[in-house]
Every structure is written in C-alpha cells, then in structure tokens.
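To whoever is on call:

I kicked off a structure prediction for a single chain this morning and the downstream step that reads the tokens threw a length-mismatch warning. I double-checked the sequence; it's 314 residues and nothing unusual in it as far as I can see. Pasting both halves so you can look.
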Amino acid sequence: MNSVAEKYSRLIKSKAEKFGFQSCGISNADFLEEDARHLETWLKNDFHGEMKYMENHFDKRLDPRLLVEGSRSVISLSYNYFPKETISTLENFKISKYAYAEDYHEVIKEILRDMVVELQREIGEFGFRVFVDSAPVLERSWARKSGIGWVGKNANLITKQNGSFYFLAEIICDLDLVPDHETTDHCGTCRKCIDACPTDAIVSDKIIDGSKCISYATIELKNEIPDYFKDKMEDWMFGCDICQDVCPWNRFSKPHLQSRFTPNEALRNFKKGEWKELTQELFSEIFRKSPVKRTKFMGLKRNIEFLKPSPDQF
C-alpha cells in the first residue's frame, strides 16, 4: 500500500476522533458476496414483514460502487448514544434510548459533512456521499468488514470496549485507503439476548425475524399490530432495547457527550395516563425533532392503545 493511502487513512481516523466518533474503520468498496446470500435467504423467509422497501435496490445494498460512482473505499464510523441516565419506566411506557432526543440522522449527518469539509481542505476535492441509516447500505456488514465490531446473536454490531449502543454511519468515497481487518466474534455460548426476547424474534444466531420484533411492530408496521404481540410488548411504545440491555458487553457502555442527545424533559415527566391522553398538538411539540415522528401521531396512539394499561393506572 502506498504512503499516500496510509497518510490519508491516518488523517481520516484522526478527524473521526476529533469530531466525536467512537470508532472508525475502512474497507474496500467491493461487492458483498457473502452478505448477498444471507440477504436473499432473509427476504425469501419473509423476515422483513411489511418492510417491502428491503426488497428494493438489492444490488445497490451489496455494491457501493452502484451508489457512488468511482468509489474505492467505505469509511465506517460509530457514534455513541448511550445515555447518562435512563428515563424512568415507573408508571411510564418505554421508549428506545436512541429516540430520547434529537433525530440522529440529522445530528450525525451534520457532523459528517463538517468532517468531510475539513478533510477536503487538507486532502483536496474527492468524490463522496455520506450515509446515516438513510439509503440502501448494509451498515453492519461494512462496519464488521472494517473491524469496528462483530455482529452479535441479536444482529447488533458489538464491540468489547463499548458494547452496542451506538449509531453507524458511512462515507463512501473515491479515495484509495488502507483497509482494516475484521475483528473476532466474542459472543461465545452466551444466549442472553435470545432468551430475553419476549417475542422470539431472534430465530437463530444473527438471524432476526423482523416481523416478530417489537421495534418493527411499534415503528415499521403501518397496519394494526397483530395479536401475536398481545401481552409480549413489555410496555414498549416505541422501539425496544431488551436484547441490548441484557447483553453482557453493554456493561462497558459509557455515557455519550452529545448535548443534542439529552433526553426530552417531557419524556421524563409523562406517566401512562398522560400518554393515553396524547393529542396531535402535543405529539408535534414533544417529538418535533425526534425519531419518534417517524411513527406519526396515529402510529404512537395505536401502540399505546395496544398496550392497554390497566384502569388503576389512570
């Protein structure tokens, strides 16, 4: 590998640290042959439920050169979102930690763009696109290939140093860079995530039946929640963190330093009875910049109604 590629690779990792990213790894922008077989099988098994968009852009999901013309490298980055304190679930419904505050798509994209501006000042112009869970990119596959972590039995990317409470992002670019090596799998014989899932969504090691996942039911599903989920939701009104909360590696998670990820005060103070009376106006006020807006007011109301709190909680 030439010295320019090494210099640029070091610079990119240095900038990633400066801009607050937890990890940064690099892989060659090649076709993901092994992932192609897994994705095809997953789709054939209908594990994507009503997420029909997963059937679209099959080739683009597997080959970054179809997303970014002339791309040579995929830069994978992780950004911590583990909160300093979790929102109390006492007399309250539950919401995934990633949705406590501002929408991560916007926050991290802004940081990525600023980072690329600095890189181009020092490297010169180069072709690129930034991605934060917003295009047909197999983020975990690229992060795994770049050595950031391994894919756990719950299909989340896990690291020994930081667990799994972080977002993934990518810069796909036309720079020749030095690729990193994959890390090893450290789940061993642990089955905590599999055993803890109340809906049996983890059908086997690293294979998730998305149609049985609480996160799918409360976010992705647009129709009525199937009876299969009755009495299995464990008070989750948006998303679910169960398989991450029980993962032993998450005992190493450290609080994030991003002020825009500070929990919304309204989420701290609401109780079940108040959520039951949620209005469109209040929903828009509380979740204006939140990932929760993805489910829309009627979707969140549907989730809350499905949980059917007992009368003595009002």
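Update from on-call: the warning came from a stale cache, not from the record. Cleared it. Sanity check on the structure: The two ends are 66 Å apart (CA to CA).
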